[in-house]
Amino acid sequence: MIKARAREQGKAKKAAISGPPLGKEGGAASVGAAPTIILFTPQLGENIGTAARAMANCGLDDLRLVRPRDGWPSEKAVAAASGADGVLDKARLFPSVAAAIGDLLHVYAATARDRYMVKRELTPRAAAAEMRGFLDAGEACGVLFGPERTGLINDHIALADTVLSVPLNPAFSSLNLAQAVLLIGYEWFTARTGPPPEVIHTGHSRPANKAELLRFFDHFEEALDDSGFLRHPEKRPGMTRNLRNLFQRAGCTEQELRTLHGVITAFIGPRKRGDGGQP
Predict the structure, then answer these.
(1) I need a labelling partner for 179 at 20 to 30 A (CA). Which of 33, 37, 168, 231 fits?
(2) What pTM, to 2 d.p., does this model score?
(3) Cis omega before residue 197 (within 30°)?
(4) Under a CB-based contact definition with an 8 Å cutoff, are residues 62 and 37 in contact?
(5) Cα(76)–Cα(22) distance, rounded to whole angstroms?
(6) What residues make up the domain containing 31?
(7) Higher pLDDT among residues 28 and 138, named by residue
């Protein structure tokens, strides 16, 4: 039965990479709009399966996998999911974190370590209430998790708006992947929200999604390269992360990014052909 299910998932693999998720209903009961769970290079099929089980416990069903180490589909994931088949059947594969978060407006990065970045940080409980408000307004959210052994790298945390940090015993605060997904999913599932304390009106525009923000980063960093601002290779990674964090905190609208693209073009001229593709 496990082999048959894995074969069925394999047939859907190509469509799952580029198209809408397909598969049997079940596993996670519908509870309305819910945050996406993104797993970056999960190491074991069993860990994907137990994370899917945790998602189903909390009514989450949008699972995105970025380059799972042992490939996909996975018989071990199906076995470990213990019936959360609906989540695994709908899981989608992506080649990069940038591709996996492209359609999201708000991204939270789960990490246990201080990365010494200027970055907004919330507990899962506070983030859950915030995500409820965003989702009620039709603004897609996702939570990004790193590989089990090392966690997320700094470049991926710089793509998130907010860091999620769980207040646990400082002498031993590590969680396995399924525990982390369950803890954050539980807080979301039980969160209750009233009117948000702050509302930003976007006029005739809308909040920019991550794909639009990443295209702006590419354009901006190309201009900084051309100007010589990023001329020191050893400093470039930290400088670009700091600048990306600055614009993440700004919460730009789609129209504001268009304006910023125009400002850059006015300073340095049109972009070089072939350099402005999707990140």
Answers:
(1) 33
(2) 0.78
(3) no
(4) yes
(5) 20
(6) 2-190
(7) 138
CA distances from 111 to 160, 171, 174, 242 (A): 11, 16, 10, 18
Last residue of a domain, which of 132, 160, 190? 190
Which contiguous run of DSSP H or E holds residue 141? Answer: strand 141-145
Cβ atoms of 6 and 73 closer than 8 Å? yes
Region of residue 67 (phi > 0: left; psi between -120 and 50: alpha; otherwise: beta): left
Place of tokens 């190509």: 14
Paired tokens of 276? 């402005």
DSSP string, 189-208: HH----S-S-----TTS-B-
| Six token digits for residue 175 | 């969680």
Say how many domains are in the chain: 2
CA 14, CA 11: separation in Å to the nearest integer? 7
CATH assignment of the domain containing 226: 1.10.8
Which amino acid, residue 126?
A
